[in-house]
Amino acid sequence: MQPDRAASHQLLCACITPSLPEARLALASLPWFQEWEDRVGGRCGFTRTGFFRLVDPGKEDLLRQNVERLRSIGVNTELISGDNLKRMAPDTNIEDVEAVAYEPDSGYADGHSTANAFMDAARRGGATIHQGMTVTGFQVHGDTIQGVETDAGIFSAPIVISTAGPWSGPLLRRIGIDLPLVPSRHQIMILERPPSLAHEHVYISPGSLYFRPDSAGLTLVGYGAGEDGVDPDTYRDAVDADHQIEGAMRMAHRIPAMQQAGMRRGYAGCYTVTPDGKMIVDQAPGIEGLYLGTGFSGTGFKISPAIGIALAELATQGEATTVDVAAFRATRFDEGRMLRANYEYLDRPYDPVPTAGGSSLHADTAWDR
Ligand SMILES: Cc1cc2nc3c(=O)[nH]c(=O)nc-3n(C[C@H](O)[C@H](O)[C@H](O)COP(=O)(O)OP(=O)(O)OC[C@H]3O[C@@H](n4cnc5c(N)ncnc54)[C@H](O)[C@@H]3O)c2cc1C
What we know:
- InterPro entries: FAD-dep_OxRdtase (IPR006076), FAD/NAD-bd_sf (IPR036188), MTOX (IPR045170).
- It comes from Candidatus Entotheonella gemina.
- Keywords: FAD, Flavoprotein, Oxidoreductase.
- Residues 21-314 form the FAD dependent oxidoreductase domain.
- Its cofactor is FAD.
- By secondary structure, the protein is of the alpha+beta class.
- Among the domains are: 135-181 and 276-364, 3-Layer(bba) Sandwich (FAD/NAD(P)-binding domain), CATH 3.50.50.60; 184-192 and 211-273, no CATH class.
- The protein has helices spanning 20-34, 36-39, 60-72, 82-88, 111-124, 168-173, 241-254, 304-317, and strands at 12-13, 47-48, 51-54, 78-81, 99-103, 107-108, 135-141, 144-150, 153-156, 160-162, 182-192, 202-205, 209-214, 218-223, 227-228, 262-273, 280-283, 290-294.
- The strands form four sheets. Strands 3, 4, 5, 11, 12, 13, 14, 15 and 16 form a nine-stranded mixed sheet that branches.
- The longest helix is centred in the N-terminal third of the chain and has 15 residues, at 20-34.
- The protein is globular.
- The two termini are 38 Å apart.
- 43% of the residues are buried.
- The model is unreliable at 1-7 and 354-367 (pLDDT under 50).
- Bound molecules: flavin-adenine dinucleotide (FAD).
- Flavin-adenine dinucleotide (FAD) is lined by residues 1, 3-4, 6, 9-12, 134-135, 163-167, 171, 186, 188, 222, 269-271, 293, 296, 298-302.
């Protein structure tokens, strides 16, 4: 196990997503990042930059409808023209951009600081945290959880919350829970901006390109589908040379001045994906007292405050009341009812691909309320 490998990456904090259940989680989480010191204590490194969501030509209507729906639930977002984007970020190539969703309050934060601040707050609240210990199994009696088995002994507990990231699938299979969780490797490039370039915003752009500024004149860039099915203990954590070249080209298309960017060492991290690219937040099927938060499909950081609350509410009240997480139930894959937003852009690697012939990936709009 490689703790915290996945923590050193992009970590965009934005509400922009076509899926309302996910947007609600992001919306509930954003104030935590914004008011971190008061709410949690310590620092999370939240940097407000504003966020641009660009889509492929021809998808402006989807963007417009999503912006309206997001605004209807309280997200501070608006549709702006390509020309307005150019005014706000003059180095952007807008030749293929007609409309952009702009979210002024969003930005990015730091994974290590966030996790450490959460742990410190938990300790102050009375929690005991054991690190450097591996959970090797669950103790289940009948249909009830009784604790966890670790390499340092058994811990009895009437409630267990399992958030094992890419290790979740094999761990849960040990007690007969077989969920479609696939560990996937994703690469992040680090580019040195030319000194004249003041890149200040976070972007998601067609070609599943996403990038954000970092300190010291650096820009972090990710794109494309990951390498699915890797072993989270042994995957290659450096960036592949061909990936780097392709990424630099995509970046230079969107921000032409980045043609002059220098290359720094990048890195790869691993996260879990599900077939519909949406998380599982639920009681474990058939096991009383065991709760799951997994399969976040590359979006788990920005919603982590709300997910923590939802899992605590599920475990203590039987229902998440702060934000409804019913859409993310574990059984939806077996039921053949995968989660889809009403207006998907279908330009992210894990967006569902509609197939002909009435597959289960057809829109289940009842869930996207
Ligand atoms: C390259 C990259 C870019 C990303 N960008 C973003 C982004 O921009 N925005 C965003 O919101 N999200 C992003 N993510 C996704 C985000 O990092 C994950 O969704 C999030 O980390 C999931 O949190 P988690 O706690 O569920 O799992 P993890 O962060 O994977 O943590 C799981 C933890 O469980 C521990 N563990 C596992 N098994 C055991 C065991 N048997 N015993 C004891 N401990 C165990 C591991 O050591 C680890 O510390 C990105 C991920 C990557 C890799």
